[in-house]
Structures are given as C-alpha cells and as structure tokens.
Automatic annotation (TrEMBL):
SUPFAM superfamilies named among the record's database cross-references: Class I glutamine amidotransferase-like (SSF52317)
Lineage, highest ranks first: Eukaryota, Fungi, Dikarya, Ascomycota, Pezizomycotina
Protein name (record): Class I glutamine amidotransferase-like protein
Cross-referenced Pfam families: ThiJ_like
InterPro entries cross-referenced by the UniProt entry: Class_I_gatase-like (IPR029062), ThiJ-like (IPR032633)
Length: 253
C-alpha cells in the first residue's frame, strides 16, 4: 500500500501542544508520513503557556503531552516546514489534512489565511465519499474550515455534521482566568463570537448538524457524507487521532 501522507498547517505561534503533538505521535506510530506547513516556512512553536511554566501546571498540557511536543519539535519535518504561501504549494498529494486548535491570538494567522482558504476550498470537496482524502480538525481548527468559503459563497462545511470548542467551555476558561490572563482565552478579543457560534452560523441547519457534549469523556464527530472528522478540545486529541487513522486507512484502501 502507498504511504499515507499527512499535512499539518500551523501558525508560526500559538497552537495547542496537546492537539498538535498527540495526533502527530499517533500518525507517526501508524506509519504515516507527516509534513508541516507555515505561512513562510518558519519553524512553528506551540503556545508556551500550555507547555511550560505555572500556566502549564494549572491549565495546560499533561507531562506526557509536553514530552510528546518536545519530541515532535525536534524532528526535521517540524523544524523545516513547507511554505504555504509559495506558488508551488499544494494540498493535492496529501491523504489527510489535520487542523489543530489553540486559543492564543496568533492562531488567527492560520484561521484567517486567504492562501489556506484557497487551498482548502479546492481540497475539501474532494473528501466527498468515496474518497482517499480526509480532513480532521479540533477546537479552533474547525474555524479554519468554517471560514473557508467555496465557489457558492458558503463555508466548505455548510452541509457537514461537526463539533468544535463548546461555548460553555470557552466562557468558563475566559471568565475563570480573566483576572490574571485578561482576554487570553478569547482568540478574537473581548466581545467576539465564541468558536461554537462562529461554526454554527455557517451550517445549513445548526440544530441538526452541530453536535455538542459538555462531558469530560473524549468526544469525536464523524460526518457521513464527507471524510471529515472533528473534536472539541485537548482531551479529545487521542480519540480523534485514533478515529482519523482508522478513517484514513480504510479510505485509502
């Protein structure tokens, strides 16, 4: 069987270490070939608050996730990512596009990127089943897709079943830390829409299509029409990786 190729687009800074490193480790263990891409080929770095210092101990990644992140960060594919703004860059060779989340404001570089939107607008329709192509996203990574518009002007996930970071989780994190972290947990600042609201508003029928869970058990949503799979936050990362590997492997034959 041909090697399964994965691309993880990242902002230069700010992604969640657990949502990036735990799936990366699982993809590598499964034998997948993994590449990263940043806007200009700069080595990315995940949100420091989530993997070092007091904020890591109180709010951030577990020690095992921190260890996985440090291992990932030392690999050639991570330190020498592709350049997504290059005229020769394309998503076409990849079986899987994986979009990690993170709430640090710098992740807007990926969420708002016209180049990434252009590439995903072309790629996402090719995940229509049966297909050998898959997209997976977690937390704010789902917003990269909700903000990507197709030729019809609709989000590429307008007719998909999806989840994302629950508004309740985002609000609890924001209000619970505002006294000492300010608006750190609001990616677009105070008064901006929650991730859940941003995603729900692009869906054709959010009541039926948006799936939510406020439980702490891992929760992953898989669409039936497209090879598209989504999750909420770091605690879902391991299950998301496992289900994504199964979906990609079965779809790639």
């Amino acid at each position: 069987m041909a090697t399964i190729k994965v691309l993880i687009p990242m902002s230069d800074y700010g992604h969640d270490p657990t949502e990036t490193a735990v799936p990366y480790a699982a993809f590598k263990k499964a034998g997948f070939e993994v590449h990263f891409a940043t806007e200009n080929g700069k080595t990315p770095e995940c949100d420091r608050k989530m993997w070092q210092g007091m904020t890591q101990k109180l709010l951030g990644a577990t020690q095992s996730a921190v260890s996985a992140y440090k291992t990932m960060a030392s690999t050639p594919e991570f330190t020498t990512p592709l350049n997504w703004s290059s005229p020769t860059f394309t998503l076409e060779p990849y079986n899987l596009i994986f979009l990690p989340g993170g709430h640090e404001k710098s992740v807007r570089q990926l969420i708002d990127s016209p180049d990434i939107h252009k590439h995903l607008a072309s790629y996402f329709p090719s995940t229509l089943k049966p297909s050998a192509k898959t997209v997976a996203a977690v937390c704010h990574g789902v917003m990269v897709l909700s903000e990507t518009k197709g030729e019809d002007g609709k989000s590429v996930i307008h007719d998909c079943v999806t989840t994302a970071l629950p508004a309740r989780f985002e609000q609890v994190a924001f209000w619970g830390t505002r006294a000492f972290l300010g608006d750190y947990y609001k990616t677009y600042g105070v008064g901006s829409d929650d991730v859940e609201a941003s995603v729900r508003q692009v869906l054709d029928d959010p009541v039926k299509q948006y799936k939510n869970s406020l439980g702490m058990s891992p929760f992953v949503v898989q669409d039936e029409k497209y090879n598209y799979i989504s999750a909420r936050f770091p605690a879902d990362a391991k299950l998301l990786a496992e289900k994504t590997i199964a979906l990609v492997s079965s779809s790639s034959g």
